[in-house]
Amino acid sequence: MNMKMIKKISSTLFLFVASIVLLSSCHSKEKTFSVNGEISQAEGEVLYIEHRGLGGIAILDSVKLKENGKFSFKEKAPENPEFYQLRLGNQIAVFAVDSTQTLDFNADGANFYNSYKIEPTMPNAQIKTVITMQADTKDKISTLMQQHKNKELDDATYMERVDSILSIYKTNAADLILGNPASAAAYYAVFQKIDGYLIFDPYDKKDYPMFGAVATSWNRFYPEAQRTKHLYEFTMNALRVRKQQEKQSDFYDNITLAESQLPDISLSNVKGQKVSLSSFKGNFVLLDFTAYQSDFSMQHNEIIRSAYNKYKSKGLVVYQVSLDSDAHFWKNVSVELPWTTVYEPHSIYSDLLKSYNIRELPTAYILNKEGDLIKRVEDFGELDHLLQQIL
Fold this sequence. Notes:
Structural class: alpha+beta
Number of strands: 17
Distance between the termini: 114 Å
Shape: elongated
Strand order of the largest sheet: 15-14-13-16-17
Helix content: 40-55%
Strand content: 15-25%
Number of helices: 11
């Protein structure tokens, strides 16, 4: 073998070895984060570390805990804030990672969720606060639902108390969100749910700013993150829908002869016969949504009765929709009423609440002879005056 060939082989071998070293070097410099810690009273149990991604939860690694309870996980670090969790049995501890950092985790296996602590504390202490608030809110609403089911609460009281509980969560969560909307805790807070429904409603004018604040901040600090793109698209879509809803609300709240027809209603009366709202075209209609089991019902129906007796000769009819949860109670009351009453079996969970922009009970609208809405009744004390002007 001549010297020229030897040099060629040596050169090729050098490049091959160099490439392996380079690749190995690059791999060894891969950014990672670590979670180290100790869980007492958990010998023999399996601890999992999982990624809470947009597409779902994925297991990254696991370890069977020994007597001392010590563990250590090392995972690829995310380029932007991401959410993970440690899972022991059916208990989880959620945390966020936004850099190549080391987290220290300690907990009592017998009381995993309540006892766990993570260092550094921010933003993970805030995330735990959010989770605790959500769980507390869910428990309180579940209690109210059971009381409502047991007939211990009427429909209006139930709705009022649920709204009050949600308002407390929103007030506390809003302070956290607006305090640092770019934080992982703020992102986590706006997407909390109860029974599959977001607590902050992105389509509600009062709740939307929470999503807007987080989306704007994340778009500024993490413009390439998948979570940012998802949140931004979600928020902009909600804005478009909300604008459309506001147009609908303006339509309901202002005295305008709208060309668009209201969604028709067809429900059963006390005789079991289907009666549609549209069947009353040619008359002025007082469309009233109420609940007979509510404290306000007796006084409310006296106001309706007075207006009906005074203006029925001028073409006024009443189409009253009961949202009571107790059909038997509705029948006992409605059989004594001189106007049309129908029953919505879905009660306060009816789609009519959204379709007719019902924010509270009672709610009423006045429709003209063509079936167009011409006024939302804001104050039932002014009902007689409104009808006098219109009729």
